[in-house]
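for the writeup, i need someone to sanity check this before i put it in the appendix. the sequnce is what the collaborator sent (i think, or maybe the updated version? ugh). structure was predicted straight from it, no edits. if anything looks off just tell me and ill rerun, i have time this weekend
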Amino acid sequence: MSDNIINHIGREGLETIFRELGIAVKTTEHPEVYTVEQALPYISHLEGVFAKNLFLKDKKKKLYLFCAPHNVDIKLSDLAKLVGASGGLRFADENILQEKLGIKQGSVTVFGLINDTSHDVKLIMDRRLTDGTYSELYFHPMVNSASCGITPADLTKFVEHTGHEPLLVDISSLS
């Protein structure tokens, strides 16, 4: 499987892209974490919010990356209806995650979109990640042993650089 990610941008390449785009990130190193709950002890004291990132597919194998504040409780069936996903949403296989985003399970991040040059993955974001609700947003930098804080404006700049147009949704409307 590692062959799938050989030509993908990793953490060091991502940091280079941040510098080239003039994006300042605040990186917090921590042990490997595989869930939001495992990450929170290392970043919950920081200003802002840790993001939940889910790599999903629908029945027609269309791929989605869903990003929202970590404390959002969302049912995949509700999200599928909200975004018009065919036949519901389920988690995509790790080999597809590695192939499309160049990352492994436990490291799912919006930054993986830099590797989706064919734009096969549709980005779905809770609008609070871009509207200034939070001053800093924390995502893994392609690995699950660190978290990077980025401003909403710089997140928007990064996503625009990848060529992806996010579908902004109001997740709070589903509660």
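Strands lie at 26-29, 49-58, 63-69, 89-91, 121-126, 137-139, 146-150, 167-169. Helices lie at 11-21, 36-43, 76-83, 94-101, 152-162.
thx in advance!!
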